[in-house]
Task: inverse folding
């Protein structure tokens, strides 16, 4: 969680990303002056939404591969026509916007296993731009209104898709969802096809699109398993680009039709170049460790309730479970906690007034705190909205915004009471994870390699997914594989 941004700024970013002309040109049309201007204006906001652009050799490598594949689209005649950014985000995501701007997160790059897969993902995103799919999204957004689209995406099973659920969703929506509204299945297949064409003309193995889709499907299933859920719905490439598992065979068919299945993958080069890349949460943005969120820079920590899972976003930490949903974030603070709590409720009152019956003062682990709960109608049901705020300094406060079915606001009481300051020593002990590329030894097996993974659970499954291995695949001596370690 980094500095909180306003809904207005996010909406402006979305509008820029969706803007286009009324007609939909074919995929051979070059970048127009209008598209270049739109992209240039949106680019700084997108970098901020996703933790900023990374620099150094890894970022330069991704830029080179991205420019090489993007130029195959015909959108620009020179590699310099494209700006390719490696984003400092722990979310599996990639996207591109009009104007030649292409993005992938370090987390998604770490999931890949060769250079052809990297080119395939970036080529898929360029394919969306070449086919002007964003302009079709804009037309749909205009029909429903920008805020209506935001609310529809953010609505949860608990809250439905109207009323307060939409209002809270609009305030909490993460950048990846704002910028990658779901495409139709037909658009996804078209982008797959275009990406495979680009792989072929660039000399890569065209089967890479299918293998990376398979890895994404496996990662999605692993996320669901780790969260104890049947279906993981995270702000990630695998969910904003629907159903990767069902597209694997179609992608393989496309690849065989192109005749480019004998192209290069550059596996060893890729693994060498991404060795040491940051994996998972960046401590500067806070980290999720099991049920605990700890932010060494802000010097705070809290614990989610049993059975809930957390997602660390750019502007907020989301805590979700079957019996409620909450978000932890910050806002402008003038030194008055009661006013702060009131301002959070006021920001929700777009369609109906949401006012707590009272705002109570208390202390939590030595921190001044204030809270209030309001019961509101949401469609055909009643829900409780709770704001629980903490003062960390005269000019700095943070808060939880929680939603539960009526009468169940106590669901998050233990979490509210768990908020605490952390010591300098505890902050210093937050060590990031990274990718370590190692060579399999003569006595190594999947089990021995997996035992080196810096996790206390699901080590073998994590290792297999990270390396694109099926449940029956083995490793061989001399093979390079990825493991996740603490620090480097």
Result:
């Amino acid at each position: 969680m980094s500095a909180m941004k306003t809904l207005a700024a996010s909406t402006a970013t979305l509008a820029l990303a969706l803007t286009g002309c009324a007609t939909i040109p074919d995929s051979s049309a070059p970048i127009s002056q209008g598209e270049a201007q739109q992209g240039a204006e949106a680019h700084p906001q997108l970098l901020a939404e996703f933790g900023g652009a990374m620099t150094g050799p890894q970022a330069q490598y991704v830029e080179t591969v991205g420019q090489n594949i993007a130029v195959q689209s015909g959108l620009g005649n020179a590699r310099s026509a494209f700006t390719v950014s490696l984003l400092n985000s722990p979310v599996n995501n990639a996207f591109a916007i009009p104007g030649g701007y292409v993005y992938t997160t370090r987390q998604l790059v770490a999931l890949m296993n060769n250079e052809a897969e990297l080119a395939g993902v970036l080529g898929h995103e360029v394919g969306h731009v070449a086919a002007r799919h964003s302009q079709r999204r804009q037309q749909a957004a205009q029909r429903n209104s920008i805020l209506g689209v935001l609310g529809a995406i953010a609505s949860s099973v608990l809250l439905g898709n109207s009323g307060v659920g939409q209002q809270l969703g609009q305030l909490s929506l993460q950048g990846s969802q704002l910028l990658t509204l779901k495409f139709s299945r037909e658009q996804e297949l078209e982008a797959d096809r275009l990406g495979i064409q680009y792989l072929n003309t660039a000399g890569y193995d065209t089967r890479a699109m299918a293998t990376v889709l398979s890895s994404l499907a496996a990662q999605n299933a692993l996320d669901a398993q780790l969260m104890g859920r049947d279906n993981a719905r995270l702000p990630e490439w695998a969910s904003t680009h629907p159903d990767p598992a069902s597209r694997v065979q179609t992608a393989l068919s496309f690849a065989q039709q192109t005749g480019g299945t004998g192209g290069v993958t550059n596996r060893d080069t890729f693994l060498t170049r991404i060795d040491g890349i940051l994996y998972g949460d960046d401590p500067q943005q806070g980290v999720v460790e099991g049920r605990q969120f700890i932010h060494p820079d802000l010097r705070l920590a809290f614990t989610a309730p049993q059975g809930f899972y957390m997602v660390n976003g750019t502007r907020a930490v989301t805590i979700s479970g079957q019996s409620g949903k909450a978000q932890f974030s910050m806002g402008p603070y003038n030194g008055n906690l009661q006013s702060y709590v009131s301002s959070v409720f006021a920001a929700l009152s777009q369609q109906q007034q949401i006012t707590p019956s009272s705002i109570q003062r208390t202390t939590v682990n030595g921190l001044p705190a204030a809270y209030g709960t309001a019961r509101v109608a949401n469609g055909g049901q009643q829900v409780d909205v709770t704001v629980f705020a903490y003062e960390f300094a005269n000019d700095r406060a943070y808060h939880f915004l929680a939603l539960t079915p009526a009468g169940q606001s106590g669901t998050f009481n233990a979490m509210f009471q768990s908020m605490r300051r952390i010591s300098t020593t505890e902050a210093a002990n937050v060590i990031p994870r990274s990718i370590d590329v190692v060579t399999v030894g003569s006595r190594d097996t999947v089990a021995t390699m997996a035992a080196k993974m810096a996790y206390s659970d699901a080590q073998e499954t994590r290792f297999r997914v990270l390396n694109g291995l099926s449940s029956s695949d083995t490793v061989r001596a001399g093979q390079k594989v990825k493991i996740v370690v603490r620090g480097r």
User: Anything to note?
Assistant: The first helix runs from residue 7 to 18. DSSP finds 19 helices and 17 strands in the chain. The chain has three domains: 7-279, 283-428, 433-486. The two ends are 23 Å apart (CA to CA).
